[in-house]
Amino acid sequence: NLSDFAEPNTKTSLYFISVENNSSIRLEGECEPGDSFVLYRLFNTLPPMVLSTDISNGTVSFLDQTADIKNTINDYILTRYNHCGVAADSSNIARNILLSVNQNGDLGWSEHEPWSTENRIIEYTIQSKSSSGWEDLAETSSIFYTPDVKGVRTWRIKATTTSSVPNNLNYGYSNEVVFDYGFDSSLLDTFFI
Q1: Which helix (DSSP H) or strand (DSSP E) does residue 172 occupy?
Q2: Nearest-CA neighbor of 13 among 70, 97, 90, 127?
Q3: pLDDT tens digits for 111-137?
Q4: What is the distance between the alpha carbons of residues 14 and 92, in angstroms, rounded to a whole number?
Q5: DSSP letters along 77-114, please?
Q6: How far apart are alpha carbons 77 and 27 in whole angstroms?
Q7: CA distance 80 to 88
Q8: Which of 4, 36, 145, 157 could form a disulfide with 174 if both were Cys (CB 3.0 to 4.6 A apart)?
């Protein structure tokens, strides 16, 4: 019975999720120091995958290098266990931003979780990769964007919230996608120089 367990002083939560280097997912969270916890990746049809039981001092920091970040929205949950090994409570669901591009070059992405379910204000910044790094192209509160560009572009989405998030981790990135928008005629001006 869950009512048999004391309410923790630190709420079990996953407050940060972000795709890192277009290859893995970084998770950050917090939990009651001294209790046992397990970090799971959830699947629709399979049992949950145990990712970590190595949680110390009430903090969670994990890099999931096995997640499919290019094709899948990955769900994570942190579960607190009592001294008898019975689940006492769980965190919110944390979910990565999955960016996709359709045949017309329109961008669409999944909402950042947990922020959208917590009704936090979220701004999404559409970023384009250049030779000098990532450039901000536009901001929106929508989860769709139609770029007006030419040439081959690499895109990612940066979610930010103005709400307070522990350790100033008020951002999260999507995976990267590449799309060819056709010939950029502005390059002709410099081609013959």
Answers
A1: strand 171-173
A2: 90
A3: 998 887 777 878 999 999 999 999 999
A4: 6
A5: EEEEE-TTS-EEEE---EE-B-EEE-TT--EEEPPPBT
A6: 10
A7: 6
A8: 157
